[in-house]
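I have been asked to look over a protein record a colleague put together. What it holds is a sequence and that sequence's fold in token form. Please read both lines and tell me whether the tokens look consistent with the sequence. I do not need a full report, just your reasoning and any doubts. This is what I was given:
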Amino acid sequence: MNLPAWIARRYFFSRKKRSFISWLSILSMLGVGVGTMALIIVLSVFNGMEELNRQLFRNFEADMTILPAEGKRFVASSALLSQLRQTPGVSFISAVAQDNALARYRASGLTDGQAVVQLKGVDDNYTQRSQLDSTLIQGQLVLRRDDVNYAVVAEGIRNDLSISPVDILTPLEILYPQSGQTLSAINPNAFNREALTVGGVFYIEVPNYNNVVLAPISVARALFGYEPNEVTSLEIQLRPGTDEEAAKQALEAVVSKAAPAVQLTVQSRDDLNRDLYRAIRVEKLFVALTLSFIILVASINIFFSLSMLVIEKKQDIGIMFAMGATSGMIRRIFLTEGAIIALTGAITGLVLGIVICLLQQQYGFVSMGTPSSIVDAYPVRLDLIDVVLTGGLVVLMTILTSWFPAQRAARYMA
């Protein structure tokens, strides 16, 4: 029999006498449990938000994007494109010409509306990626049909300019400043102009994409004054199951050899949104620290309850010393008492937190509260590392707060 553990259990679970110290121990246990449960839930919510953002970006951004390290554009030679297509794991390559432009639209019965948009010119391969199929809320994903150039606009632009995809007679006019011309409202040669028929509207719940207008790359190149092979980026879609890190390294090796004259970088979807993910992780860290302080306060209550218990059991300690108990045995009794209080609360909090997160994943009890949200309930994702770190944090705090009262008890009769 483990005598220190048996005595510690008797001190905690004894029902014959419920003193103030016993109730304080129970409150400490509840505090540790609630803090642990809250920490697990909050960390899982942040993990879920990060995963939700990845899913949103997956609807619009490519798996890999090749960009110039300096400047805005580069020449995508046929040799570079050929080697990229032969790279293992590559499925589609889309040439992109993208820049800010001015959009005008005259809605029926209204004056001309105008807004600054991100004009993204894409080639025919872009529609084969089928990324925007789930985000289309009106019309079709069509960029060119019967020698007519179409545009697919974000819902933000549709609302700002009162665009109606049903009205095929009213074009969306895109204007871009001409190089070397003085910008003036009365100078007709100051802007390149293209008229597009709006074929569809898409909606992605990300602010960065509220002003995007998709158009044929030939239209974008004509507006921007690009050469036929010039692009701002190459977007690469990988085959399902491809190792993204290995594919990224292979693509970097290709662009370094095939295009030595210009320095190109290969960025994954996460690389493009690194600042957003960093902000989420920093916020997660600060919230975790705040909740850790709550657990620390509950652990400090364990310190006070053990200190008061040592004073209350001073006579028992003296009797145990007289019966041959050592200082180490007395220390283990009160360390075990602190572990019982903290671990009971921590295990209860961990179990409740995990159960609540699993129920939220399965049934979505807590809704987002906004009808326009693409998900009905708060996204959560349990990570084993969060559970392990939370448990380790509670154990560490328990040892620190229980050590001094246990050491004090061991020195009473030493």
Q: What stands out?
A: DSSP finds twelve helices and 13 strands in the chain. Residues 117 and 161 are 11 Å apart (CA to CA).
